[in-house]
Amino acid sequence: MFEINIEKFKESMLSILKEIEHTDTHCITRLLNIIDKTFIGAKSYRFYTFLNTLKELGHTIDDNSKVVGFCIEVLQTALIISDDIIDNSEIRRGHPCWYKLVGLNAHKDAIFLLLLIKKILKKYSLNSKGYTNLLKVYENVLLKTILGELHDVLPTQCTDFENIKKVYSIQNYKTMVIAKTAYYTIYLPIYMAYIYSDKVPPKNLLPFSEIMGIFMQFKDDYLNFFPEKTKKTSNDLQECKLTWYLSHLVEESKNENDKILILQYFQTKDENIVLPFIKKRLELFEEESEVFLSQARRYLDEETRKIYKFCIELFENK
From what superkingdom does this record's organism come (predicted)? Predict the structure, then answer.
């Protein structure tokens, strides 16, 4: 596996900051502190996916390419800093969430990181012929991801079952997940590696990314019921979040008694009403996982086999 050199990335950030007017010592210290505190326990799957794709494409893995790959992990950090504020989370990666340490100013930190990524990408990918496309795909994916996050907190008036069914559908769940997870987790690191290597990304990258993104979120939804494994807190049921399990519960509720219970749950947010169904559905995890992975394996061809296989195994063992 590739070595992550956080110190090298911090050096790249410092060099960028020194080029910006009115950047004081306090700002630099705070930024370094964000990286130190929020990357503890990070799995860095996007970083590994980017570098493995470069390797399979025959591109040299050097410090510059590692910095570019690490930018995707910084994107992940910025997104979870904001997510934790919105979700009122307590623990992330086994440690207090960043906003619990610095307050709501953490949201400004997230915005700053997103803007800093563009500066770093521009500086460290100038030798790539397609560096303008690199910046373009980053901006497009960021926009799609944020739209997906907005979908995640889409409000609904829980006045009747039919209204709930429209919002909490399986199709809505998949649409949300593709936007908020698949694009920046699977699509972006692989696409960026192709562009960075001056090669044309495969045509089946998007559908492969969509399946893997849904699988990844499905797995996260499952693991959220086991905080001892994830080392993070989850309020999905208390907040009526659109998840794999809740969307199936709503869509599979056919008789009037089920509909009454669903409506009662959404009005009271009492998770005990739906837990019996959830626990039964959790037993299908292995079976449902294999369905997703089988679909993803269909996209393995002569060009992408090693790249996609690495990605599948990485997230299967997550």
Answer: Eukaryota
Of the candidates 240, 49, 76, 201, which has an alpha carbon nearest to the alpha carbon of residue 145? 76
Angstrom distance (rounded) from CA 242 to CA 168: 6
Burial state string for 86-114 with b = 16 or more CB within 10 A and e = fewer than 16: ebebebbbeeebbbbebeeebbebbeebb
Cβ atoms of 59 and 199 within 8 Å: the answer is no
Please identify every stretch of the chain with a pLDDT value under 70, giving residue numbers as ranges: 1-5, 21-22, 126-128, 153-157, 229-234
Inside any domain, residue 24: yes
In a domain, 1, yes or no: no
Is-contact 73 42, C-beta < 8 A?
yes
- Could you tell me the CATH number of the domain that includes residue 285? 1.10.600.10
CA-nearest of 69, 108, 100 to 232 is 100
Q: Which domain holds residue 256?
A: 6-316
Residue 271 falls inside a structural domain? yes
Do the domain assignments include residue 168?
Answer: yes
| Token digits of residue 200 | 């044309």
pLDDT digits (tens, 9 = 90+) for 37-58: 887 777 889 999 999 999 999 9
Q: What is the pTM of this model?
A: 0.90
Q: Closest Cα to residue 77, out of 105, 137, 104, 37? A: 37
At residue 278's C-alpha, the angle toward residues 172 and 315, to 5°, is 65
